[in-house]
Amino acid sequence: MKTINALISASNVSVIKHHKSILKNIDIQINKNDFITIIGPNGAGKTMLLKCLMGFYEPNFGKIQKKDKLKIGYMPQSINVINTVPITVKSFITVRKKYDDVSFKQVISEVDINQLVNKQLSVLSGGEMQRVLLARSLLNNPDLLVLDEPAQNLDISGQLSFYKLIQEIYSKRNISILMVSHDLHLVMVSTKKVLCLSNHICCSGKPQQVAQDPEFISMFGKDMANMMAVYQHTNHTSQIDNQLIDGEKNN
User: Fold this and answer.
1) How confident is the model at residue 83 (pLDDT cuts 50, 70, 90)?
2) 1, 13 in Cβ contact below 8 A?
3) pLDDT confidence bin for 1, thresholds 50/70/90
4) How far lies 46's CA from each of 53, 145, 181, in Å?
5) Domains and CATH numbers, the chain
6) In the chain, which residue ranges form alpha helices assigned H by DSSP?
7) 182 CB burial (10 A radius; 0-12, 13-18, 19+)
8) What is the pTM of this model?
């Protein structure tokens, strides 16, 4: 596996917990300006793979290499906010972070939370909290942004808005993105490469290719494969917006 220019490279990574195989022989390489989305069913090992790649968890087998001085920004699925502990949005974003006022103002403007910085974390809505988590992950100008199910607690409108924001950040910044997502209908317009995981890598490639792979069809069904296949991989989301919103109205 080539690793010269890779931000992160993993070879033959396997994880076994409680005598159960969580990940098996995973090979993945994340390069500069990559946008990779990991998909797969519940229990497929998606979050565990992120933990291994970031160094939060040591795999039982295999090798993981990182670029020297690699800066990673991590946005978890969610956090537990203790309502009895007062903390403002600004304090939460900046705690244990090295930053300057210019960087802080830039990032809160980028994710559009200027009006939230003095609010208590405990009063935020789900959508507001996701943007705050994103701002915290971007504050130190990372080389790689890692997102674990970033829109899972949002309604359809919130999902669309959040994925558009991620796409804008990817386009404007010199950054790579690694994302876990279950929003298959949005993967087509928000990623360059899809990796389908079910403890092992079932298939990977451009979204259109993966949607036609027998392993993907077996896992998610022909209807999902056909729906993904009709979308062209572009940065324009108006068509998918309309189809998703119409679909929600009809449900």
Assistant:
1) low
2) no
3) very low
4) 11, 16, 9
5) 1-71+144-152+175-251 (3.40.50.300), 72-141 (no CATH)
6) 46-54, 89-94, 101-110, 126-138, 156-172, 184-190, 207-211, 214-220, 222-229, 238-250
7) middle
8) 0.88
